[in-house]
Amino acid sequence: MSRVPAAKKRPGLLPAWLSGYQRAWLRHDALAGGTLAVVLIPQAMAYAVLAGVPAITGLYAAVAALLAYALLGGSSQLSFGPFALVSLLTAAAIEPLAGGDPARAVALAGALALMVAALHLAMGVLRAGAVINLISHPVVVGFTSAAGLIIALTQVGDLLGVDVERTDRFVEGVMAAAPAVVDAHGPTMAVAVLTLAALVVGRRYLPRVPMPLLVTVGAIVAAVVLDLEAAGVAVVGEVPAGLPRPGLPDIALSDARAMLGPAAVLALVAYAGNVSIARTVAARTRERVDTNRELLASSAANAASGVAGGFPVAGSLSRTAVVNDAGGRTQLAGVVAAVVLLVTIVLLTDVVEPLPRAVLAAIVIMAVVGLVDVRAVAGTFRVDRLDGVVLLATFMATLTLGVELGLLVGVTVNLGGHLARGMRPSIIELGRVQGTTSYRNVERYPTVTDERGAILRLDGPLNFLSVEEVTARLRSLVATRPELDWLLLDASGLTGMDSTGVHALRSLQEDLAEAGVALHLATVRGRQRDVISRAGLWTELIDGTCHADIADALAAIGLPDDAPLRSVAPYEVAPDELL
């Protein structure tokens, strides 16, 4: 993919990509837009049903989102519209309030989209894009994997042709779905099995064929020819023709208050996905991702969807990949897709009325299979045990407590774990690596040490959270090694220091001096020096006991030039690698 040149200063309200548009891109964008529409038509309807609203609202949401993002978005290929995880969160928010009334469900979903838009707008204006850092990668993997299972479970009713109460708690969903299996409707199950088989085969052997659309068209033809509705197969049913009438959803203030928490969760989840996809695209096209601009673009897309009778929307990685694979260069591909969807809404709505709902359920299940990332669990544990615990806690909490509380638990466990880790920074003993004048971890390299002293590197902060742990471990070291005359604290790994840490360090220096052990510092960075200076302890901690590096500190301590800790002996052999 060639880089899309940076746009020139755009006139008026023209989108950024349009002012620098090249005629050679038109064919690529038209083809990509048509391909995107082919994929999006069945997906949008399926995700609307997942969200608890009529299938046609998925097309409304898709058109509004595509056009709004094309106007304001910063990514050349990111595809906005209905998304499985966002639809699940939407259903969890509106179904307890809708009471089974489709019209009320549409109004609540539209209002929820406007609330997400307002939250993203506020975050963008306040330049609060960094809040996304609260949702770490392990939280995302654990949350989306559990959500994928929950989404699949919500489709069991439509797959079996029976009524199953939908819930965002996996265990409750299993208990509700299990008894329904014995009452499964044969023709509906046959449609579901054939659809799933076709989608699996298409994904495995025909990845470039728009199998969801082909399956949808084939199912509509079969439903008409075989009169599946008369056989008891649930279908999409009556679909209003023509464009929706734009307007603000009519809901009570109490409903808005009830949806405020879910809207906040939706805003975070959608934004996390949007930024992740935008960065993936940027790595390929060498664009710059402006996270605050993406917030404003997402705000516009959700606002447009809410006003157009849709529901909350977000970026889709799978559809963005479709645009890239089809050769799309700019957001004109999204505009083309929106035009195709508009034609479908105006002219072809009656065509989709015989579509079995089991087909839409199968499309949803195949779309969310990729959300369940089993390999990431073991991989995350290998990389970092704390991240593995966070992932597993998020996964289990989402399955048992629901999507909203699951995400909250994940974020809380992540913050708590890293807070606890910050209270126990690593203290590494260093020695001179044999054959070199470098100082490294004595447990990782063949090193030379001196029994009269110890070189220690503090990796982490020295602040009110960690000071008790750090000073206690240093005092314990001195108590267990009475032969020590000096300690050298290498501050090259010190990530921060506050007033509590400074004064504790001074008290430690005084206590060790009374025990006959001199405490010296090395490689204290400028920011830490500033903190020491502002604390009024420059003379005590810096003058005479703080040194530029370990070598200077050892000389100041009094070790001669030929001391083993400072000089290389002729017989020493350096390790092959020193990292």
Structure description:
The protein is elongated, with a radius of gyration of 31 Å. It is an alpha/beta fold and 579 residues long. Helix 20 (467-480) links the parallel strand 6 and strand 7 (486-490). It has helices at 16-19, 25-51, 56-72, 84-98, 102-125, 137-154, 156-160, 170-177, 186-205, 211-226, 253-258, 260-285, 291-307, 317-325, 332-347, 357-368, 374-383, 385-401, 403-422, 467-480, 499-514, 526-534, 538-541, 550-557, and strands at 79-81, 314-316, 426-433, 439-441, 447-448, 453-462, 486-490, 494-497, 518-522, 546-547. The chain is built from 24 helices and 10 strands. Mean pLDDT is 87; it is low at 1-12.
Radius of gyration: 31 Å
General form: elongated
Structural class of the helices, strands and pairings?
Answer: alpha/beta
Instruction: Give the uncertain stretches in residue-range form.
Output: 1-12
* Cα end-to-end separation: 36 Å
Largest sheet: 8 strands, mixed
- Amount of helix: 55-70%
Mean pLDDT: 87
Number of helices: 24
Q: Beta-strand percentage? A: 5-15%
The total beta strand count reads 10
How would the blueprint of this fold be written?
Layout: H1 16-19, H2 25-51, H3 56-72, E1 79-81, H4 84-98, H5 102-125, H6 137-154, H7 156-160, H8 170-177, H9 186-205, H10 211-226, H11 253-258, H12 260-285, H13 291-307, E2 314-316, H14 317-325, H15 332-347, H16 357-368, H17 374-383, H18 385-401, H19 403-422, E3 426-433, E4 439-441, E5 447-448, E6 453-462, H20 467-480, E7 486-490, E8 494-497, H21 499-514, E9 518-522, H22 526-534, H23 538-541, E10 546-547, H24 550-557
Parallel strand pairs: 6-7, 6-8, 7-9, 9-10
Antiparallel strand pairs: 1-2, 3-4, 3-5, 3-6
Helix pairs in contact: 2-3, 2-4, 2-10, 2-14, 2-15, 2-16, 3-13, 3-15, 4-5, 4-12, 5-12, 5-13, 6-8, 6-16, 6-17, 6-18, 6-19, 9-10, 9-16, 12-13, 17-18, 18-19, 20-21
